[in-house]
Amino acid sequence: MSPKKPVGPITLAVANQKGGVAKTTSVASIGAALAELGHRVLLVDLDPQACLTFSLGIDPEDLETSVHHVLTQGVDPAEVIIATEDGVDVLPATIELARAEADLLTRTGREHVIKGALEGLADDLGDEAYDWVLLDCPPSLGVLTVAALTAADGVLVPLQCETLSHRGVGQLLDTVHDVRRFTNRGLEVWGVLPTLYDGRTNHARTVLETISETYDLEVVEPPIPKTIKFAEAPAAGRSILATSRTSKGAQAYREVAENLVARASRPKAKKARKR
Ligand code: ADP
Ligand code: MG
């Protein structure tokens, strides 16, 4: 039996201002895994590099409208969303999104643009609303990431377990703390997701334990192993769940998705924790 679906859309921001930690890969793979479980999934590409859009088999250059128009011109997201072969829908990005940061900077309520767009979409879709919305954040702590955190129920932090990888975590958590104070009291840190994980070394395990203890963060299991298979998926326009169905990486993301579904049905903490 497939795990229970969450009630109403659960919005998760996948964020880390460091590039190359597998944010985009995790969004595409967890999204595909949730779709396999029968959940309705929307992925939102918030990176002007449009890697998520591209990795789902869409050429950003072919698009006339994108998430940029939704955020800066109030275009209805339903007009922009594209269904993909992976069974997920995507709100695609193009390089135009690079301007959004500047366009939004002087706008009142800019932190709320993503939240507003997603709420309108959920209202319009009614019973057909998405079960999950995954936000693929850009590698910065700018306007778009803050807007994503403002729209989110939870934040998931992909982390490559290297010695220096935790230096940015404190900064990200400071931003989460600000978002809780000013724009989204209910934001919860769902935890760190160890990515590009080389379990053969004690080193990776030690770094992971240090980070989780230092910042009092949950670790979302299992760690995603480092494997060459991930390099092949984006070019095929599919996630690793389709290009390498039985690989360890695909299997790990399936387990992560199941754990997220379980986490979604956990009652909310009454009082926001310190961090
Ligand atoms: P980000 O979105 O954080 O910048 P990406 O998801 O684009 O990171 O991943 C960066 C690179 O690492 C990509 O080339 C991707 O294919 C590769 N990659 C991601 N996860 C893995 C993994 N588990 N094993 C090997 N390579 C990976
Ligand atoms: Mg990315």
From TrEMBL:
Membrane-crossing residue ranges in chain numbering: none
One Pfam family of this chain: AAA_31
Gene3D superfamilies from the UniProt entry: P-loop containing nucleotide triphosphate hydrolases
Signal peptide: none
Residue span, AAA domain: 12-188
Domain of life: Bacteria
Its biological purpose: May play a role in septum formation.
PANTHER family xref list: COBYRINIC ACID AC-DIAMIDE SYNTHASE (PTHR13696:SF99), P-LOOP CONTAINING NUCLEOSIDE TRIPHOSPHATE HYDROLASE (PTHR13696)
UniProt-recorded name of the protein: Chromosome partitioning protein
Source species of the chain: Nocardioides exalbidus
